[in-house]
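So, can you check what follows?
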Amino acid sequence: MGTTTGFLHSNDTFLGGTLIANEEIVAWDLLWVTTLDVIDAGYAMNTFESPISYITEGEPGSRIFKMQWKDVGLYDEYDAEGTANNKLNFQLWLYEGSNDIEVRWGPNTVKETFYITNVWNSCGLLDDAVSEGSFGGGLFVTGTPMSPTALNIENENDFFSVQILGLPENGRVYRFEAGALSIDAVETADANLRVYPTAVHDFVYVDGLQSGAFSVDVLSPDGRLVQRDQAISGQALNLSHLPTGMYLITIEQGKIRKTARIFKN
């Protein structure tokens, strides 16, 4: 976000996956490795079970800074149950020279996926954030874990609309390449595109697409593909065979992509 820094800070002002470039300045530049509220898995017992470590490898000019969060718990689970059964592993890689940033997901023990899907779940950067809630701009990952997009956000109303709709699987990497994003890359969610109804019996409909074919992926909350179709504008999508539960529907036509949640009755 245009900030050069030699230090990354983490403190209790922010969530556990947040790093701050300029801790002493009122307007913070933030790197959100994850927006999930992660805590030490030993928090309930006042023990330390989730180490955070880092290492810098390579030759000067092309080094890679690697930071790791190991077996971290989720505050929402602790708050509800007092437990830490759902644990995550993830890393941040920073590339010297290219200034590329990678968020890398490792293995997890998550069985209760609502602790991931029912809260704000993304990764990205925020520029000049102040305590009143305003900021200078942001870039966050949104969409399904397997095929998300990067979206610019410009105001507080957009802040929580960016969401990874599920849990990234072991080995998933989200890479931010400096200077690589174009207008086409970030304007993939069409405001006129609508998927309805949100509570579905047998059929779901899509409005706002151009005429012609579009692709449809239906995923379970954990990111598992359960149905893939090609459809025509105005055609109803038949979900009657799916069991009751929540699903993620991704509609894609050219550069337009939208992901919506529906509940199958």
In short: The chain has two domains: 18-186, 194-264. The CA atoms of residues 64 and 95 lie 5 Å apart.
